[in-house]
Amino acid sequence: MMLRLGSAVMLLTVAMLPAQTAAQGRVTYCCNDGSGKQVCSDVLPKECYGRAYREINRQGVTVRRIDAPLTAAQREKKEAEEKKAKEEELKRLEQDRRNRALLATYASEKDIDYVRDRAVADMQKIIKAAHDKQAELARQKAKLDAEAEFYKKKTMPPKLQAQIRDNDAELKTQQAAIESKLKEIEALKAHYEDERARYRELTRQKAPGRSEAAAPMPPGTDTRPR
Q1: At residue 40, what are phi and psi to the nearest 5 degrees?
Q2: What pTM value is reported for the model?
Q3: What does the domain layout of the chain look like in residue ranges?
Q4: Is the predicted pLDDT of residue 13 greater than 60, yes or no?
């Protein structure tokens, strides 16, 4: 008799387990409807569609909060913020790469000056060549002008007219090249000045033994050597 009673109790307990488990795992969904009234149900109420809601367990504790879907304006703002953050991160990574490359390229500020001076010297050679070409063209122009004097009261031969036009055009081309190279020299100097400033700052940050200033000692502290 006792054996049968024990078996019955065990069977009843086993049968109740799924119901207890389901009850323990039951979730209530709550939200505020359009009028601000709280609406709750064991399934997500229609009033909660498209709204923020929360999931509450059997003990009345909120276990999860779900935000309302973003509006078109909110999505646009979020996408813009994410895009800006991504661009700033890419910019930071690029700056880090440039800083590492700078430190790997130069061993000292003198190296930067050397590379700058060499680049400027190359530009100055090009400018000198253009000046030499200008001088040659100027001599040709003087000859052409002298020859053109002979035709002041006559029709100038087409060949001479073409030579004068070509000479003038070439003089302008050489002058434009000189002005362009002079601007490039100024840009080069500015570039290497920026390189020098960044190099100085980076090496100062990496200088051994550099640390934050020590905190001031409290008043009355005995600082005598012991």
Answers
A1: -135, 150
A2: 0.56
A3: 24-69, 70-105, 107-205
A4: no
